[in-house]
Amino acid sequence: MADKPKEPEESQAADADAPKSTRPHLPRVDDKSPSPGFESTDAGSLPAPEHAASTPAEQAALTGKAPSGSSASDTTVQSDAEKAAKIAEARAKTAAAKQAAGDKIPTPTGAAAAAPGAPKAPVKKKEEGPKPTDAASHALVKKIAAQLSGAVVEASEFLGQLTIRIEAARILEVCDFLKRDGSAPFNFLSDLTCVHLPDRAEAPFDIVYNLYSIAANERVRLKAAVLDSVQSVCGVWPTANWMEREVFDLFGVQFQNHPDLRRLLLPPDWEGHPLRKDYPLEFIENQWTARHLPEFTNVHQEQLEQRRAYGLEQLSEIDERVAREYFRQGKEVMGKDK
């Protein structure tokens, strides 16, 4: 007949009668610390340990932490040493790379090298380029001023290029004098052009003459500020004929005593002068386009479509007429650059 299981009271009594050394160590379920001043009446007394932990291994078994000097502590120290070695190695590589880059740039010496935390020296400003200088003492300027009193307004020199500003009313005299000069005859008019300066209301145009002396291999630039007209130099250099016509066509400056002053590039009845600063850059409708562009009929439209079908996209009067109609309707043939 099987023994009956012990009742809970009997088990507790048996545990109480059993020796302290043979009691099982039960883990404490409630790990909350009692409030201050609380005294337990039923907690009982804790059993004394069989023997105190005297070795580091026993301490580790009781506390769950490896004591100093143990193998686990040695492993941690070794891991920290490896990390420190890797950091030192990385720093060494960085320093070597900086040193290699520094070899290409001259390192500062003296006080700058001794003070690593000192602020960097300010960036040196870029040196200014050459500027025009006064050329009143130039030999050619003195010669012109001596022969033609009051003709020279000012003179400057820039990078070896001499520029003399001449009184507009005396430009023909100065040009004739320079061409007939015995020591350096300027017998070649290499260029004649114009500059529009709308802010200078009293004389908005500068007529520029670039002269060259073949015999002396010298150059000089003459400038004359004019309102709307100046004397022609075709009698001095015949090649000025077409140059003055071009200036008249594109700037509208009149040349007095010109043998054949008429437009050179644009139609004779064109309105305006395209190289003036106040001339519009976009397409404008004027009387010339209304007079000269043909009407665009249905026949012209059919011909245009046939040419495009064969890949013929060359500009023609018909295409110009189409573009003109686009502008009249406020449409844009090509987008503008923003």
What does this structure look like?
- The chain is an alpha/beta fold and 338 residues long.
- The protein has helices at residues 8-17, 56-63, 71-104, 111-114, 139-147, 171-179, 240-251, 287-292, 298-309, 317-328, and strands at residues 133-134, 152-158, 161-166, 188-196, 205-213, 218-226, 229-231, 254-256.
- It has a 6-stranded mixed beta sheet with strand order 1-2-3-6-5-4, with helices on one face.
- Helix 7 (240-251) links the parallel strand 7 (229-231) and strand 8.
- The longest helix has 34 residues, at 71-104.
- It is flat and about 120 Å long.
- The model has no long low-confidence stretch (mean pLDDT 77).
Secondary-structure element sequence? HHHHEHEEHEEEEHEHHH
Helix content: 25-40%
The averaged pLDDT comes out at: 77
- Helix vs. strand class: alpha/beta
- Quick one: overall form? flat
Helix-strand layout with pairing:
Layout: H1 8-17, H2 56-63, H3 71-104, H4 111-114, E1 133-134, H5 139-147, E2 152-158, E3 161-166, H6 171-179, E4 188-196, E5 205-213, E6 218-226, E7 229-231, H7 240-251, E8 254-256, H8 287-292, H9 298-309, H10 317-328
Parallel strand pairs: 3-6, 7-8
Antiparallel strand pairs: 1-2, 2-3, 4-5, 5-6
